[in-house]
C-alpha cells in the first residue's frame, strides 16, 4: 500500500518525478520505504510497525540487537534501521490516512520490547540530520556527531511516562 501511495503522491504533487520531491520529508520516506521493502524479504522477523485503530500501518522500521556504548560502558539494546512514517504522514498536503504521533508510538513499542528483553529500554538509531530534532524531542542523545543517537534507560522511562500521560489526557477529554 505504501509503494502504491508513493506513486500516487509523486504523480499528484511532484509531476511524477522523484527529483521534484528532493529535500522533503516525503523524499526521505520514499528512500526508506524502498530499503524496508527490500529488507522485508530477508529480515521479516526484524520488522516492527505501528497500526492505527483502522489497522493501517502508520510507521515502520527494522530492528536488531546490538552492543551500545553509553558513558564508556557497553550495553545490549535495540538498534533501529530505517524508521519511517507512512507516506501520507510525510507529505505536506493532508491526506485522509494521516495520523500524527505514529513514529513516537513505534519508539514507545521498541522501548517496551527492549525492557521485555532485559535491555532496560536502551534503543539506538543512526539518524539523518533532518530527523535528529524528532529523536531529541523523544529523549535520544547524540553520542559523537555521526548521527548515532541513544535512548538511555532513564530517557526511555521518561518517554513511557509521557506517552501514558498523553493517553490519559486523551481519554479524559473523550477523544
Task: Walk me through the topology.
Layout: H1 2-13, H2 25-42, E1 47-51, E2 57-70, E3 73-85, H3 102-116, E4 123-126, H4 132-138, E5 141-142, E6 148-151, H5 153-172
Helix pairs in contact: 3-5
Beta-strand content: 15-25%
**Mean pLDDT rating:** 92
- Report the structural category: alpha+beta
Principal-axis shape equals globular
Describe the structure.
The protein is an alpha+beta fold. The chain has 5 helices and 6 strands, in the order H-H-E-E-E-H-E-H-E-E-H. It has a 6-stranded mixed sheet. Strand 2 and strand 3 (73-85) form a beta hairpin. Helix 3 (102-116) packs across helix 5 (153-172). It is globular, with a radius of gyration of 17 Å. The model has no long low-confidence stretch (mean pLDDT 92).
Short description:
By secondary structure, this protein is α+β, with helices and mostly antiparallel strands. It is built from 5 helices and 6 strands.
Fill in the keyword field for this structure.
175 residues, alpha+beta, six-stranded mixed beta sheet, 41% helix, single chain, 6 strands
